């Protein structure tokens, strides 16, 4: 969906600037919460595809070895390319773009694959629907998987195609050269794309674009259409699609910091509505990918670290197979101050691009550490289990590890108070001693320690606390 502040970085600004120091902890008291972990339940299995981040052909730092190292250290396993709306203007064979879009000369597909291999990550490729053809897409599959042997599994057809103007001038941000911009035209084209692409490599999985339930233009029936976007697309493409694509930016220009931190809970509701659409058209087996999301405001300070970790795990618990952050590098949209006094750069990236006023290029923003914390509590094949919290400002997620351990992630959304958490268990008997990983307001990195116990932990204000338990 279109959203207020997604930007494109048009050139590298590599001047080194000083980062504003994070404020000291605002803790003045301690709140209390109770979390009951039910290790006998199974909400979902952690998929190998879960943790992703968007990359872009306009990113002058995309192919840097530093970028690859940072992504690997963060636990990012999937990299979406060539980047949002640029996907619908990009011609991969010539590394050129229509509509005057900027492209960094070094950010072509071959260089992307070199970086991805270094980061030990795999691509999700968005083929050009807006100005491309099924033959161009099939040629990309052939080059990537037959000629080069990359074995890329996941391919999307177009980016936010519902924003092509079919629903009026309020929904007209996506480049689309087709005369017929209806959902039926897109869906019929998808059938052709899928056939051509799978004729080259039958093992690939191809995804189609849906609108996000409760976000316009979801529910709007355009002139001449038999239903809204999702109904028309799913009726035509049906079981030919292997996964469906959702984008989620759950904020407006008036969203407050406190409101933003409640939004991850609504992600599960969106998944329920998507599943209802899939069930309606007999395609319940299709996987759900959230290939773009971001929170805010603020976009770069500690609340984003909390939001990122909470959103990824909430969506995983709901059975989503992939969650892909917008963006690796993005660029500053101006500065402001969050509730703790920290400077926000309105940059939706995980890592600073070094734009004017930002920290030095390749400095991780705090959202980076929120995503990195995921790798401390879960891995592919682990089981997400229930861990309800008694306090609205304390989110809890629990993961039964394949080695018999049990890990918790406690997220304190109170900026002023630490939270003392009483822990109890059903279906698991832990040893008292616990290892922890912490990322709080004043942290410059995630720190590991032996602290707290299996029955009591204290989470710092605006803090993330991973608790690692072993069976007694």
TrEMBL record:
Keyword Signal attributed: yes
Organism, scientific name: Streptomyces adustus
Gene3D superfamilies the record matches: Glycosidases (3.20.20.80), Golgi alpha-mannosidase II (2.60.40.1180)
Extent of the signal sequence: 1-33
Coiled-coil regions listed: none
GO biological process, one term: polysaccharide catabolic process
Name this polypeptide is given: Alpha-L-arabinofuranosidase
Alphabetically ordered keywords of this record: Signal
The UniProt record lists the keyword Cell inner membrane: no
């Amino acid at each position: 969906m279109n959203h207020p502040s997604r930007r494109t970085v048009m050139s590298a600004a590599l001047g080194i600037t000083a980062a504003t120091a994070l404020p000291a902890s605002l803790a003045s008291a301690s709140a209390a919460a109770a979390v009951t972990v039910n290790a006998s339940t199974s909400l979902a299995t952690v998929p190998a595809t879960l943790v992703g981040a968007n990359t872009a052909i306009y990113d002058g730092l995309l192919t840097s070895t530093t970028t690859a190292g940072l992504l690997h250290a963060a636990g990012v396993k999937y990299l979406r390319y060539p980047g949002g709306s640029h996907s619908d203007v990009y011609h991969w064979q010539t590394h050129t773009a229509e509509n005057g879009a900027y492209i960094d000369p070094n950010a072509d597909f071959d260089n992307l694959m070199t970086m991805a291999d270094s980061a030990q990550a795999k691509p999700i490729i968005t083929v050009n629907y807006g100005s491309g053809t099924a033959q161009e897409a099939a040629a990309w599959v052939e080059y990537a998987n037959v000629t080069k042997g990359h074995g890329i599994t996941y391919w999307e057809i177009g980016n936010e195609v519902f924003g092509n103007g079919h629903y009026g001038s309020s929904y007209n941000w996506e480049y689309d050269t087709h005369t017929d911009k209806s959902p039926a035209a897109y869906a019929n084209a998808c059938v052709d794309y899928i056939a051509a692409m799978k004729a080259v490599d039958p093992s690939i999985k191809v995804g189609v674009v849906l609108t996000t339930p409760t976000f316009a233009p979801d529910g709007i029936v355009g002139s001449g259409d038999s239903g809204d976007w999702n109904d028309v697309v799913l009726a035509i493409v049906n079981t030919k699609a292997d996964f469906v694509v959702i984008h989620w930016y759950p904020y407006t220009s008036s969203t407050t910091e406190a409101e933003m931190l409640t939004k991850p809970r609504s992600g599960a509701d969106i998944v329920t509505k998507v599943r209802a659409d899939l069930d309606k058209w007999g395609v319940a087996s299709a996987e759900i990918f959230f290939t773009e999301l971001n929170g805010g405001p603020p976009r770069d300070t500690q609340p984003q670290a909390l939001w990122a970790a909470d959103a990824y795990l909430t969506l995983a618990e709901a059975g989503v197979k992939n969650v892909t952050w917008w963006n690796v590098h993005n660029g500053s949209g101006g500065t402001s101050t969050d509730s703790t006094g920290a400077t926000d750069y309105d940059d939706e990236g995980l890592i600073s691009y070094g734009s004017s006023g930002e920290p030095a290029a390749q400095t991780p923003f705090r959202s980076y550490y929120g995503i990195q914390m995921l790798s401390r509590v879960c891995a592919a094949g682990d089981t997400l289990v229930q861990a309800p919290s008694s306090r609205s400002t304390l989110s809890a997620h629990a993961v039964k590890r394949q080695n018999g351990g049990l890990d918790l992630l406690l997220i304190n959304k109170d900026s002023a108070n630490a939270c003392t958490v009483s822990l109890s268990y059903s279906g698991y008997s832990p040893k008292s001693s616990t290892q922890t990983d912490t990322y709080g307001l004043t942290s410059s990195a995630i720190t590991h320690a032996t602290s707290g116990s299996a029955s009591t932990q204290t989470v710092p204000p605006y803090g993330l606390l991973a608790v690692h338990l072993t069976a007694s």
